[in-house]
Amino acid sequence: MPGVVSKPLEWTRRASEAYQATLVRIADEDPPTARLVRERVDRALSLIQSQPGLGTPALRRGERRYPVQTPGT
């Protein structure tokens, strides 16, 4: 929607560190797969920003959860 400003995504420190560690672990064994996972997560984040109602409500008010499935990776 034109003129709609979306709220920037916020990662908790713990989630960000876990995500980065996961990418490093994957890259140690298979760098192309690590890139694929990162691209899928980036694509999902863009989708969430454009459609913030996606996902499942979380326990904390105002938060939603959206699992990123990576079949074949």
Task: Describe this entry's structure for a reader.
The chain has helices spanning 13-29, 31-50; strands spanning 56-57, 64-65. The chain has 73 residues and is mainly alpha-helical. Helix 1 runs antiparallel to helix 2 (31-50). It has a two-stranded antiparallel ribbon with strand order 1-2. The longest helix is centred in the middle third of the chain and has 20 residues, at 31-50. The N and C termini lie far apart (34 Å).
How is this fold's topology laid out?
Blueprint: H1 13-29, H2 31-50, E1 56-57, E2 64-65
Antiparallel strand pairs: 1-2
Biggest β-sheet, characterized?
2 strands, antiparallel
Helical content stands at 40-55%
User: How would you state the average pLDDT, rounded?
Assistant: 84
Ranges where pLDDT stays below 50 over 5 or more residues in a row are none
Strand order across the biggest sheet? 1-2
State the end-to-end distance: 34 Å
- Helix/strand order, N-terminal first: HHEE
Question: Quick summary of this structure?
Answer:
This protein has 73 residues and is mainly α.
Features of the shown structure:
2 strands, mainly alpha, 73 residues, two-stranded antiparallel sheet, 2 helices, globular, single chain
